[in-house]
Amino acid sequence: TTEETTPPPPPPPPGPGKKRRRALSDALVHAWKQFERDLFTAERACGGGGGGPVFAFVEGALVAALRDGAWILLDEINLAPAETLERLGGVLESARGSVVLSERGDGAAVPRHPRFRIFGAMNPATDVGKRDLPAALKHRFTEIYAGECEGREDLALLVSQGVASVPNAPVHAIVDFYLAARADAASVLLDSADQKPQYSLRTLSRALEYVRTAAPLYGVQRALYDGFAMSFQTLLKHDSALVLERLMVQHLLKGTPLKAIFKAPPAPPDDTHELIEQYWVEAGDLEREDPEAAGRYVVTPGVRTHLSSLARAALLRRHPILLQGPTSSGKTSLVQYLAERTGHRFMRINNHEHTDLQEYLGSYVTDENGQLAFQEGALVQAVRRGYWIVLDELNLAPSDVLEALNRLLDDNRELFVPELQETITPHPHFMLFATQNPPGATYGGRKVLSKAFRNRFMEIHVGDIPDDELRIILNKRCEIAPSYCTKLVEVMRELQRRRQASRAFAGKDGFITARDLFRWANRKSNGYEELARDGFRVLGERLRSDEEREALKATLAKVLKVPVITESTLYASAVESALVARLDAAAASAAARAESAARDATTAAAAAEARQAAQDADDASALANAMAWTPAMRRLFSLVEACLTHKEPALLVGETGCGKTSV
């Protein structure tokens, strides 16, 4: 028999002042556990640091997602290092797969949350810098190919949503233009690097974003033309740009002449914008300046065209801008000019083949107290404070450094700093620009950027400065006679036509650039013979081949209508007595300044500095008297002295022991 049991009586209701117990939510439990870990870390830092740096293992995004049940996307997964991809094998092994943090000394795997999911994304391994995933890892994913959206109905749906706020937007005309532009891009269009342009949905969506933003101020037709010119046209060479312009007039403007849509837009109600070539660009916090009025910049018609394209692209302030063109075409100066006009802080990072990501993001350094502290890099400072930053010579930087910027270059615009474990959202005024020379044989070391990476930028082609504008710039900037300006430009074009075996005159985009002409013009030559001699000193004294030197002499004599330069008489005036006298005079002047500084010194440091200056003057005088003034030494000294006189940086190239350091 079984005994009949009665259920226990229900608990009595809570009395006055008592609360009913409730189960804590998962989110609250997780928050308390995270607080416990943070408190433990802070306790160790305060109690066991001993005044020195405190280090702790910080879990990365993958481990945090694995533990908390988040969904994680590994973007550009095929660019990760091989050792990183190997660690993913355990996570992808099964539905319970995980990783062991051996770096922290753990012996057990990280517990995997049942809601954790992992995704990967990559471009096909058919482009520059892209590689395929290892087969063993790739087979653990369920692979899905995402093709481009090319169907007319799909494109119409995308466009209609993109311009939903624009009244009477020509959706089907935009689709027709996009398909026609893609067809021409595959056959007749060329960008500034003589490559086929890459038009994608990102290009289309950015054009539509501009149309939505600009239509209320500029009108629908003007916004359509500007938006699609900004995204599709400005990266093309001149002839290809004309082809695309005809397509825009045909499809977007329905035959309306361009002159009919270009009119000055109304001014914003407040003084927060600056008018740049018919575009109102929002101003920054600094005082606005006019470099042209101050004499620091010469604005020619070609420069105004580039400024118009740049101001139009800067109108949105969201997307990175890449300026590509030959050396000395004014790419960086354009951005600096626009930054000064609009009151934005301008910063610049010069890339090279050994550029490290720390130069962008920052690194740990020793502070004034001897403690390790993180010093933010130029890019992090610009992102936080709303500066305008230029990544100069972009295609010289290593590919892995550039691809690390993908998150900032995307439309979500975020910068993750691993050392700080912080994701930074850019300041509203932040803008990123990049400049580069076209890749190829002319410019050594320049890499071809992947199509996916370049497509993240809005590109602007900056071509060579036309001859008539170059003459204007030389005349206004260097203040030399117009006839001299004409001759200098003629010499440059003649040298560019004479292709030599050396890279010194490597054709149209060779090393005879506008910078050389400015350096030559700033010598302030008096007469054509002196102009020829100064031209040879600036252009010819870096050449190592006798054939090239003779070709330069012949060109100078032909264009300037002067006798051929004889190198034996070029430095005849640099006699030993005159050189020694100038050195002695400089040493005496330095000694006098040092003596005066020693009398006026009020601190021990100032007195020590004065004594060092006097010692340097004595050393220079002794070196001058001990110098063997051979013809080669007199030539080298005269050339360096001319560089110092005209405030030019001098680069001495020669074999060891030839007197470079002594000079």
How would you explain this protein's 3D organization?
Residues 55-141, 320-457 form the ATPase dynein-related AAA domain. Helices cover 46% and strands 9% of the residues. The protein is an alpha/beta fold. The strands form five sheets. The protein has a five-stranded parallel β-sheet, with helices on both faces. It has a two-stranded parallel ribbon with strand order 1-2. Strand 7 and strand 8 (372-376) form a beta hairpin. The protein is globular and about 100 Å long.
What would you say about this model in short?
This protein has helices at 26-48, 61-68, 82-87, 89-92, 135-138, 152-162, 171-185, 201-218, 220-233, 238-251, 258-261, 301-314, 331-342, 357-361, 378-385, 399-403, 406-409, 451-454, 467-478, 482-497, 514-521, 528-540, 546-560, 567-570, 576-600, 604-626, 631-645; strands at 71-75, 117-121, 273-276, 279-282, 321-324, 346-350, 362-366, 372-376, 388-392, 415-417, 422-424, 431-436, 458-461. The protein has 663 residues and is α/β, with parallel strands linked by helices.
